[in-house]
Amino acid sequence: MRFVHRIVGLLLLLVVPCIADAQSRSSARAVDWAAMQDEAVDVLRQYLRIDSSNPPGNELATARFLQAFLKKEGIEAVILDTVELGTGRANLYARLKGNGSKRAIALVQHMDVVPVTPAYWTVPAFSGELKDGFVYGRGALDMKGQGVAHLMALVALKRSGVPLTRDIVFVANADEELNSTGGIVFVEKHADLLRDVEYLFTEGGANVYRNGKLEYFSVGVAEKRTMWQRLVVKGTPSHGSRPTRANPVPRLVAALDRIAKYETPLHVTPGVEKFFRDISRNYPAPQRAWLADVKTALTRPSAREWILRDVYWNAILRNTISLTGLAGSNKTNVIPAEASAEIDVRLLPDQDPADMLATLKRIVADTAVHFETLLGPKPPFESPANTDLFRAVERAAREREPGVFVTSSMMTGATDRPSYRKLGIIAYGLDPFRVEAADEQRGVHGNDERLSVENVGFGVRFLYDILRYAQ
Ligand SMILES: [Zn+2]
């Protein structure tokens, strides 16, 4: 009896997955991807026409737009946090139910965009204009294009009836571009809505295409921590015709000069070491060997110089300091009462902000220079790369680009990921598009931001497949 049981058990083990697989295939309806691309382009154009420049944000209008679209698809979305975020602002939340046997995946976007300088645009920035195979508009890349990929991948899963073991959670936040209050308030007030979320996708990945050639796909697993400081020196105001020692300007300039000359130490985090090892295969000798063992390479002058010449590589190998803002007198003949400067400090994820501040004070070596924190660092953020979802990205990427590899990257800028990572969610930056590096450079927070029609379709399907493979 026992023996028979075991045989039946074994047979069941063998047969059940096949039945389940056949069922999932038969119950899922095929998606018409050409029609889906057209539809997604149309939705993106409408989304771009809603001016959500931050400030003031106006995310209540974008939230209502997303809510109305989801409602048509039978997905109920709720508008949240309107009181906390202030007039005209909101977060949005929706959920596509699976059978609950595995934990959920969240798709998180921000609905606000950075302001534009219309004079630098060749098309109106909020027209959603379609030109030469591209959709133009502020937010096409950062990040309404990705937001539409989230939206339409979710809708495609619902329409095609793919059996889901994981719920798919859809979140759209306000205010990522300025103070991150949308993400912060959402996490603080609605941790219950995210209780079962294991993974999260948002911006912060980078697939690198240069001159039509793919270098790599990447999932963003870490980011630098922003720590903005203001340096202030007080003095005694007087007439510029009679120089005094109480002029705060030269004192501040001397301090800034010491900071400008300071070279932050190089520091290779394990994630960055892996990134260089991954991408080394794209390079010929001797660079290949240098990147494969970046720690050693950084001890050799020629290799070190070549590596640090790349501004991105330099920024992921050390804490960085950029001197940016500067204010003294607003009149040439007046010695001001105060001189101030702003510096943009970015820390590697494993660095201590207090240590950095102490280092800055030591370098300046002048107690007349006062430091004020303008923006304190978010919690350190690093996510593991050895996960089912990361492997689902690798599978979907390889199907599209044979021979491609997916590396894990660190972002030098900031996203809302640290707020979500605090809840224990494995947060990834995923860029579902194949955008030329030059387009990325020009468009993100720049001018003539655009996304190709082909990329819109590519992004929806890529994300749809990743979400399917992660079930
Ligand atoms: Zn963004």
Description:
The protein is α+β, with helices and mostly antiparallel strands and 471 residues long. It has two domains: 30-204 and 415-469, Zn peptidases (Aminopeptidase, 3-Layer(aba) Sandwich); 225-375, Alpha-Beta Plaits (2-Layer Sandwich), CATH 3.30.70. The chain is built from 17 helices and 18 strands. Strands 1, 2, 3, 6, 7, 8, 9, 16 and 17 form a nine-stranded mixed β-sheet that branches. The chain has a four-stranded antiparallel β-sheet with strand order 12-14-10-15. Helix 2 (33-49) crosses helix 5 (144-160) and helix 14 (388-400) packs across helix 17. The longest helix is centred in the first third of the chain and has 26 residues, at 2-27. It binds zinc ion. Residues 110, 142-143, 176, 203 line the site of zinc ion.
